[in-house]
């Protein structure tokens, strides 16, 4: 059902179209206000396919509209849905010289528009098919820059032919090395660098940037809003328990990748068809009587049929679905399917898998074959979302068949590697959720795969953090380990699973990063790990080997030494790893700090008072305590603390009639401040690590009078 805005746009388009057939002097009223109103409404709501096609017809044929009105329409051609290939062909057909062609400025505007809506074309291959027509128009100087941009967008290796290279070279010489032609020639050179020599592409060249990013952003907003309205309308008419008679996928319209619709032709008087179901009561009451449709492959896109298949599991039904999927996937493997069909197929399968929360073996076997030649880009996100529902199997087999080949296919870019880490996190979550959902875990369940997954992901995360250092990258890695910590602290799963320590380098790269949020998250993860280690060792002293415990205790000792004890990079304590710093390196650090001549020493520079990420919180804490004391009694203190807090500075402050604060009380108050500001991981770790009831940090404001605490390790 159309909105009021869409109906108004239809009426405005009809008025403008009618006026375009009448010369301006013969019109009773000016059409310009109507054009401006139409442009405003198109900007606000976008254009549905029918009014959009009418406007393209108007723009691509001679009319009596003035140039300003035509430009206003071209600049506001915002398609609300996917753009049909017919509309693209109309634009291509209007290009060039001729009495029946639109003015060149309008042709240039329409070509610019094609560049901006290219990603919304429902079948962008249509422009590839029109490549010869577009190429032969390069001699038309008035539209050459925009034409070269379109060609640059759609050029593939198959389009680069010797005669076209020669034609561009000749035309470039005739036009004095036109930048647009030079830019297009450089794209040709990327495909055949041995044919096009460097001299031919020297000089100024167009970079073919997006013509108007703000326009594209507005288009995205319009299309997202339209998709949401369409989804709400569909839900109002469906209620979740009716057959989807107009199967659509992600707003594209039409039945994707040849997926058949639900149609039952062999029903009897005593049976009920899915097409007759219109609510949940009727579905439940007739569950055993419902006749299966002719094509069970419709289960991939119809939620109601998916519910029926899940509730009435049957081997023959499953085999029918599997055979159809095998046939569809075989077209991809043999190269019969084009890129669009491949992407659509993966998105349909991803939608199905996400609904049933399981990746069937037929899909996983297909992916194992696909990874032998996949470019790692096409349908990347759907494939990674399919893999997150990989069943819990032997990890070595999964790595050999899927994860190893997948890692070789994917490009080594930050967005892709981030998606890969998210996939592994979701795999871990799904595996552990499945273990929690069963009453008793079967004896042959390969729970050790979860340990091996942690080891593998640790290497992936370390590589990503080393190659793309930054707060966002660290956060992505920590998300996986937060999932591990949450899993291992579950009392049902604790006896079944083991923790794999994160890579040592990863721990210290995050700890010495400039993000207090990530450091707090890291500390919180290690605190939960300690709880799990303690519980496991209480059940079985041999649950973990000495090497695992030594490594983990080294993390605890180093972080405690840095934050709490003022002994950063110390290697003399038991278990301490000196933050992986060699004695020679630590010595250079010491000399560097001494040479600064600021009465600083290296061991205290990463504690609560001096750490680059903690010093602001510690000073905020002290200032707040001083303000609180002054509110109670304005004469309580006559001197305020002026720098990083140390034991000696607190003593000097007390002698100068400043705030009286003990060192241990100060540290505990800083932890309270961190808790209040959302950085509770640090205090959680300190409470778990520091031995002794009185010396353990607390979120209470009560002071502790204990001496230097010792570490309570696993």
Protein described:
- With 714 residues, this protein is an all-alpha fold.
- Among the domains are: 4-154 and 208-213; 239-262 and 270-351, no CATH class; 591-689, no CATH class.
- Helices cover 57% and strands 1% of the residues.
- The chain is built from 30 helices and two strands.
- The chain has helices spanning 4-20, 32-45, 49-59, 67-74, 85-93, 104-117, 125-129, 131-135, 144-154, 162-174, 179-191, 213-238, 280-285, 303-311, 315-333, 339-356, 361-370, 380-387, 395-409, 414-437, 448-467, 471-488, 504-511, 516-539, 546-565, 583-595, 615-632, 647-655, 663-676, 680-689; strands spanning 272-273, 290-291.
- The protein is globular, with a radius of gyration of 34 Å.
- The model is unreliable at 235-239, 245-257 and 692-711 (pLDDT under 50).
């Amino acid at each position: 059902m159309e909105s009021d805005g869409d109906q108004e746009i239809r009426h405005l388009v009809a008025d403008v179209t009618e006026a375009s057939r009448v010369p301006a002097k013969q019109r009773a009223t000016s059409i310009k206000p109507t054009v401006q109103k139409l442009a405003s409404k198109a900007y606000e709501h976008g254009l549905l396919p029918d009014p959009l096609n009418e406007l393209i017809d108007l723009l691509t044929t001679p009319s009596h509209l003035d140039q300003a009105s035509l430009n206003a329409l071209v600049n506001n051609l915002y398609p609300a849905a996917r753009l049909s290939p017919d509309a693209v062909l109309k634009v291509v057909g209007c290009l060039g010289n001729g009495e029946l062609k639109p003015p060149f400025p309008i042709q240039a505007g329409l070509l610019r528009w094609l560049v901006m809506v290219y990603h919304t074309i429902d079948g962008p291959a249509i422009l590839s098919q029109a490549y010869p027509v577009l190429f032969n128009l390069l001699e038309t100087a008035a539209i050459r820059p925009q034409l070269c941009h379109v060609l640059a967008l759609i050029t593939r290796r198959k389009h680069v032919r010797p005669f076209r290279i020669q034609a561009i070279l000749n035309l470039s010489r005739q036009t004095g090395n036109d930048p647009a032609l030079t830019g297009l020639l450089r794209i040709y050179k990327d495909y055949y660098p041995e044919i096009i020599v460097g001299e031919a592409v020297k000089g100024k060249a167009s970079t073919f940037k997006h013509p108007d990013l703000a326009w594209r952003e507005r288009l995205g907003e319009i299309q997202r809003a339209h998709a949401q309205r369409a989804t709400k309308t569909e839900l109002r008419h469906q209620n979740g328990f009716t057959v989807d008679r107009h199967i659509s996928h992600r707003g594209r319209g039409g039945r994707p990748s040849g997926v058949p619709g639900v149609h039952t032709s062999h029903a009897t008087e005593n049976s009920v068809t899915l097409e007759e179901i219109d609510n949940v009561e009727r579905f439940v009451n007739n569950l055993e009587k419902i006749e299966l449709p002719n094509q069970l492959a419709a289960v991939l896109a119809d939620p109601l049929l998916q519910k029926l298949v899940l509730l009435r599991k049957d081997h023959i039904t499953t085999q029918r679905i599997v055979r159809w999927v095998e046939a569809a996937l075989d077209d991809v493997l043999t190269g019969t399917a084009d890129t669009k069909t491949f992407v659509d197929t993966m998105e349909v399968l991803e939608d199905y898998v996400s609904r049933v929360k399981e990746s069937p073996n037929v899909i996983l076997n297909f992916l194992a074959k696909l990874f032998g030649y996949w470019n790692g880009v096409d349908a990347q996100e759907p494939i990674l979302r399919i893999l997150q529902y990989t069943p819990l199997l032997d990890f070595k087999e999964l790595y050999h068949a899927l994860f190893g080949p997948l890692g070789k296919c994917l490009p080594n870019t930050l967005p892709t590697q981030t998606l890969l880490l998210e996939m592994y996190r979701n795999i871990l979550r799904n595996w552990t959720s499945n273990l929690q959902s069963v009453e008793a875990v079967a004896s042959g369940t390969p729970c050790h795969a979860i340990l091996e997954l942690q080891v593998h992901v640790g290497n992936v995360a370390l590589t990503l953090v080393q190659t793309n250092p930054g707060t966002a990258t660290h956060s992505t890695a920590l998300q996986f380990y937060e999932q591990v910590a949450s899993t291992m602290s579950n009392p049902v799963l604790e006896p079944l699973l083991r923790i794999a320590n994160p890579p040592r380098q990863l721990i210290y790269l995050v700890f010495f990063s400039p993000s207090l949020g990530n450091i707090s998250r890291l500390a919180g993860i290690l605190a939960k790990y300690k709880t799990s280690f303690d519980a496991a060792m209480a059940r079985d002293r041999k649950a973990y080997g000495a090497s695992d415990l030594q490594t983990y205790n080294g993390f605890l000792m180093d972080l405690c030494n840095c934050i709490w004890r003022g002994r950063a990079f110390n290697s003399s304590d038991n278990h301490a790893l000196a933050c992986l710093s060699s004695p020679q390196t630590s010595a250079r650090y010491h000399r560097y700090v001494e040479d600064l001549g600021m009465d600083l020493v290296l061991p205290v520079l990463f504690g609560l008072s001096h750490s680059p990420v903690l010093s602001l919180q510690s000073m905020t804490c002290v200032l707040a305590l001083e303000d609180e004391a002054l509110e109670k009694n304005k004469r309580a203190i006559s001197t305020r603390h002026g720098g990083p807090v140390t034991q000696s500075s607190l003593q000097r402050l007390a002698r100068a009639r400043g705030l009286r604060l003990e060192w241990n009380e100060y540290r505990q108050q800083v932890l309270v401040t961190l808790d209040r500001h959302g950085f509770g991981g640090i205090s959680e770790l300190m409470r778990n690590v520091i031995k002794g009831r009185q010396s353990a940090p607390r979120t209470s404001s009560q002071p502790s009078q204990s001496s230097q605490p010792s570490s309570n390790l696993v």
